[in-house]
Amino acid sequence: MAVKADMLRGHTDTIILYHLLKQDNYGYEINKSILQNTGGAYELKEATLYTAFRRLEEAGYISSYWGDELSGARRRYYSITAGGRAYYAEMLDEWQTSVMIINKLIGGNLNGGTD
């Protein structure tokens, strides 16, 4: 089952930062990882992904550099900054609080049952 983009829209930055916590990466690979990790249920639109990269870079949460590919197209890589790590932790806490509140409001809990 695919996930509606509206359900995750406010968490695009957090999703990207999570991927950059593991290693520097470029847009296509991050989106491919998202698709694989969700079993094909969620994929960021390219425009959404690159708009988020610009926003995160302007805020100082990520930085970018050009890779030194020996073959193929030159890629722009992104890396998370110390400020990005702090922002990620803040947004993760906000997400966890939101899940708790929504589960209380709609009768679910973190174990998938009802109250």
SSE layout:
Blueprint: H1 5-8, H2 12-22, E1 25-26, H3 27-37, H4 46-58, E2 62-66, E3 76-80, H5 82-106
Antiparallel strand pairs: 1-3, 2-3
Beta-strand content estimate? 5-15%
- How is the quaternary structure best described? single chain
In spatial order, strands of the major sheet run 1-3-2
Mean pLDDT: 89
CATH topology description:
Arc Repressor Mutant, subunit A
Give start-end ranges of low-pLDDT stretches: none
| Number of DSSP E strands | 3
Backbone shape: globular
The CATH superfamily bears the name Winged helix-like DNA-binding domain superfamily/Winged helix DNA-binding domain
Number of helices: 5
The N- and C-terminal alpha carbons lie at a distance of 25 Å
Radius of gyration equals 16 Å
Report the sheet with the most strands, covering strand number, pairing sense and barrel closure: 3 strands, antiparallel
Q: CATH class, please?
A: Mainly Alpha
Describe this structure in words.
- It contains five helices and three strands, in the order H-H-E-H-H-E-E-H.
- By secondary structure, the protein is mostly helical.
- It has one domain (5-106): Orthogonal Bundle (Arc Repressor Mutant, subunit A), CATH 1.10.10.
- The longest helix has 25 residues, at 82-106.
- The two termini are 25 Å apart.
Give a quick rundown of the structure.
With 115 residues, this protein is mainly alpha-helical.
